[in-house]
Amino acid sequence: MFSPETTQKGEDMIIQSLDPVHIIGESSLVAFSKDAGWDVEMERFRPNIVSVGHGAYADETWQEIKIGDTVLEFDHRTTRCLITNVNWDGVRTNGTIQTLRKHRPRCEKTNKPVFGSYFAVKQSGYVKPGDKIVLVKSRTV
Q1: Who wins on pLDDT, 1 or 136?
Q2: pLDDT at residue 57 is higher than 50
Q3: Between β-strands 114-123 and 70-79, what pairing exists: parallel, antiparallel or unpaired?
Q4: Burial of 81 (0-12, 13-18, 19+ CB in 10 A)
Q5: What is the pTM of this model?
Q6: I want to staple 122 with a disulfide (CB 3.0 to 4.6 A). Which of 1, 32, 44, 73 is the partner?
Q7: Of residues 85, 82, 35, 84, the one with CA closest to residue 56
């Protein structure tokens, strides 16, 4: 990807690298599905990594984690929009976003419900299926 350091007029540009990794816990989806009253598909939320073996919404308390030899640092919670109402078959429902609004906390800036967390890559490395998520540092929510 090309990222120029100056505009065509020669003005300095502020370049911001946004390389978030989206993580949602399998147990978070189970808890959310219980609130919804139906089995909500993980695909509706499009995570890069699904954590297994952690408590519901544990990702919201992680400040820094290590997966394989990759270190990730909490960036922000994932705000949710209407696209969560669309399943992979293209069928629309209202249940997902309404349940998110009813049962999940809201983002202070946008008032949208949150589900999942974005992490920035602090130390790049390799992540393989089955790698454990190791908590390096926690944060208060």
Answers
A1: 136
A2: yes
A3: antiparallel
A4: exposed
A5: 0.80
A6: 73
A7: 35
Are 34 and 91 in contact by the 8 Å Cβ rule? The answer is no
Sheet of 133-138, strand order: 49-51, 20-25, 114-123, 70-79, 62-67, 133-138
For the stretch 88-111, pLDDT in tens is: 676 667 678 888 889 898 988 889
Helix spans in 4-140 (H): 26-36, 95-103
- Residue 83 structure tokens: 């696209």
User: CA-based angle 96:18:90, to the nearest 5?
Assistant: 30
Strands (E), 1-141: 20-25, 49-51, 62-67, 70-79, 114-123, 133-138
Distance CA 99, CA 32 (A): 8
Do the Cβ atoms of 65 and 125 come closer than 8 Å? no
Check if the beta carbon of residue 37 is closer than 8 Å to that of residue 31: no
Q: Residue 73, SS3?
A: strand
- Cα–Cα distance, 92 to 31 (Å, whole number): 22
**Can you tell me the mean pLDDT for 60-88?**
88
